[in-house]
Design a protein that fits this description.
elongated
């Protein structure tokens, strides 16, 4: 018992530690995370942010399309003669936002499912979404009257999508 107290002056137990048969066995049991093993903690959190942001963009796109299709009803009985052209811009932008949100949500699910090259495509889409959010935040503050609430929300979206793009596009370790 002297060899044990020489190494550890106040032993809590007199049992020797059980070693793993191989280092692979020891590594396999050390993963105590909810994140998938092929992603890691940071990339899994980034992917969750991309999926949630994609779903939010899906909902926003549906709202924009509904607003564009019902814009004539806002004028009541005396709608302007070019009411269909007024709704064309929001309709096209709503379709683009819907496609971007669907791509982000589907891409995030593909990253979780370990589909080949899904990280590259989803990271690229997240970078595009971050760039669009930057442009939107600048427009929200530059166009009078400035809308600081919208600019703040777009700045948060820029941060989330930008960080997700960096984490998904970085090389694996």
């Amino acid at each position: 018992m002297d060899w044990l107290t020489a190494y550890n002056p106040s032993p809590m137990t007199n049992r020797r530690p059980v070693r793993a048969a191989s280092t692979a066995g020891a590594r396999g049991r050390s993963h105590q995370s909810l994140a998938p093993a092929h992603l890691g903690e940071a990339a899994a959190a980034a992917t969750v942010g991309v999926v949630v942001g994609g779903i939010a963009l899906l909902i926003t796109g549906i709202g924009m399309i509904a607003m564009a299709l019902t814009i004539g009803g806002r004028y009541g009985g005396d709608a302007p003669p070019d009411v269909t052209s007024i709704g064309t811009g929001p309709l096209l932008l709503g379709l683009l936002v819907l496609l971007l949100g669907g791509g982000l949500a589907a891409g995030g699910m593909a990253v979780f499912a370990a589909v080949p090259r899904a990280r590259l495509l989803t990271g690229t889409l997240a970078g595009v979404a971050a760039a669009l959010a930057v442009g939107g935040a600048l427009l929200a503050m530059a166009k009078p009257p400035a809308d600081p609430v919208l600019a703040t929300a777009l700045t948060a979206a820029t941060l989330i999508f930008g960080a997700s793009a960096i984490l998904l596009l970085r090389p694996r370790r």
